[in-house]
Amino acid sequence: MIRMIMIWLFVGMLVKGYAQIVTITEENTGQPLEYVTILSDHPRLLVISGADGKADISAFENAMQITFRMIGYKTITTSYDHLAESNFSVELVPSVTSLDQVVISAYRDDISRTTGLHIEPLQKKEIEQLGTFTLTDAISSIPGVAQLSTGPGISKPVIRGLYGNRILVLFSGLRFDNQQWQDEHGLGLSSLGISKVEVIKGPLSILYGTEAMGGVINIIEETAPEQGTTETDAGVEFHSNTLGGVIQAGTALNKGNKWYRIRLGAENHADYSDGNGERVLNSRFNGYYLKGTYGFEKERWRSENHYDFSFNNFGFIFSDVRNFFTPDSRWSRSMAGPHHIVMLNILSSVNTVHLLHSTLKVNTGIQSNYRAEDEGGNALSLQMHLITGEASLKWSKLLGNKTMLVLANNASVENNTNYGKRKIIPDAWMAEDAFSVYLKQQFSTVEFEYGVGAGFRYIKTLITPTVNSEEKDIPPFTQLRGFTNALAGLNYTPFEKWTLKLNFSTGVRAPNLAELSSNGLHEGIYTYEIGDPDMKNEKNLSGDLGIIHEGRFWQLSSSVFLNHFFDYIYLDPTGEEWFGFPVYRYRQHNANIYGLEAVASITPAVVNGLKLSAAYSGLVGELANGEFLPWMPAQKITPEIRYGYSGKADWSFYGFVNSDFVMTQDHVNPMEQNTPAYTLVNFGLGVEFKAKKASYELNLTANNLLDEAYYDHLSRLKNYDILNMGRDISIHLKIKFINHLKS
Description:
With 743 residues, this protein is mostly beta strands. Helix content is 7%, strand content 55%. It has two domains: 17-92, Immunoglobulin-like, CATH 2.60.40; 121-125 and 128-222 and 229-740, Beta Barrel (Maltoporin, Chain A), CATH 2.40.170.20. The protein starts with a helix and ends with a strand.
């Protein structure tokens, strides 16, 4: 009897080992593939292959679909029965094309639902359907994200009430510094030639160091076409309000182990009109863009090398622009009046090396940022040049089948030099280095992630006439500031369709040059600002609780958050004046920002392709003394009806109507005024045709369809009694040609 039991147990173990272990290899070489993500939605499961390319999928037996994903390889979706027929052996085909479903803002390429971080992706096609003017304008469609604007061309992202140097922008995996500490400066990056944007809400200073205390915006370049093909596309976009638009074209070639890309674009806009039909003088802007890429793959090394150039002019709007600026032709594009000039040159290299049992990612780059202000008549008053060298290293290794270890280091060196007669901040050298250790453990229903980081920031200001020379109170100084950070989170799936996200993280930000060393008139907003070199690092502790339901007919996503700041830095009016200009000083105080974001949607079974949804976002920002923080976005509810149809393989259609119900903002700082509630109605529709070697996309979008006259609380122009943009109807047309290379 005992012998029979042992035999059956032995046979059962053999069957189990044969039926439950899958082996993943590369099609061309037969080498086992490590770090392949294997997942299913019903039931929700996820495992990762080990160094031998094997993974235990015994829990997947009842799964409807099983998906195998790995960056650099084509995704395979199959069933458990088909795996059994192939003796549980899977071969992945190399592909340079990255996966849109995979987020890459986190510590490792991952699926957004398997991390405690709150990550929101926005695809390029979604951006095109929104009919927006800038990339920041498009990002602000995400609940919890807004924009601080100075007209349609100048805007910067606001994540949960934070903006400027509290939001880190990543471009090609490297920190992008556009001297965004000034309120009247925008993000400075276009959506031209990108594949998507990922927004992380909450501190991620553990990985990226200072300036990631409010969130991260990761701008991801477009990927290579399918292997053995060329893709050539051209597009044009027109906006009725500014009688302007964008024209662009690009081509990409993928030879398998090498790929190339080049893209050109230009945009031009006249002054915009508000909801009353009044022209806003000097709100015009234009830009010229060039992008090039060379990528290659050699054995275990994959490299993408990008060059990005942009040259922009932005009309300068100030309080008495109506008296200073003589109206020219209604649709004039002339930049004879006061305007900003921004020129960017960015060279970056993104590299992934698959080592024997680990992966190393190395990103390096150099950025040149030239910024000037023309007072009119080609008289350049302010000229600044910021040059930045950066390097980012990330090494990841799977420890067993459940734990991932990631070591990361980010370093940068910056130099700011003034060339104009007017100076806002001093010439300076800055350097930063941050190191972090991160662990992620994955089990059947829960994933844990935690880590710690530390680093330093070095600042040395130089003698700069009119800023910190002998007649000023703030002399040149040298500082070395250290910082530490931590993160802990979990992602729990108690039931098949429900997910719980919980995250605690810290952030840190060294004061920027303006906050440390300003001592002069800031002509952009006509205030005399005084910094304080003895300021402490700004720190925060953030908690985020999210609940997600992904059902067949209805979906829900909600998140509550609390962001507590130690030594929050803000501008405080002193009541004094300097030659008639108000004097402000940078001060520090503890503060809290707390709020709620929620999105609910229904996809009725009775109408295929129909989706009803509503999103809510609201927050409150308060100093410890009871005052409200300035520039906090108002509460907003956005209901939407969307319909999409794809009855045939060669064409598809979509249409939507939504409204922005923005509530009165009366939780304002003493230096601000209340802004009344308003409602915007937006409409869009589009169609896509596909032929054998070409595809055609046509989008029509009407924003502020009812021509509402309103003040957005985060518009700097409201201080000048200038309304936001009225009705704008945009048309976007894109044609893409695909050709297969001859063998």
